[in-house]
Amino acid sequence: MKADEFLESVYLGDRACKAIVLDGWSEEVKIRIDSISRLRSGTWNYDENVRDGFLVFEGVDHISFDPPGRIPNDEIGAIEFLGFEGDRFTVVVEIGSGYELGNYVNVKTTIRAKAVAIERPGEEGARIRE
Question: I need a labelling partner for 69 at 20 to 30 A (CA). Which of 10, 48, 98, 111 fits?
Fold first, then answer.
């Protein structure tokens, strides 16, 4: 499944980013999310709900945060697919960052990667790709 099609099947509404893991040696960015759901063929498949799972970007050669300095730690907004360039694609994941009352910003996290998958907690390496 192509990355854009896969991401269209992922539902993250009212969900929160719990952590972002940057693994330089494995060229991966893993976003830990409190709950990940999938929509397939126009219907929800609740059997695929993954609690405390990871949205994993593989083959990453770029990540940036705008504004810099803020740690994403709250609700996940839109995932904007920017397109393919060669064997990689670029997405912007908007993630809230809140520390104090009235000091909330949305952090645009730009990632360029070769592939995307979902990983269940405790099942590293056994990833959902379709």
Answer: 10
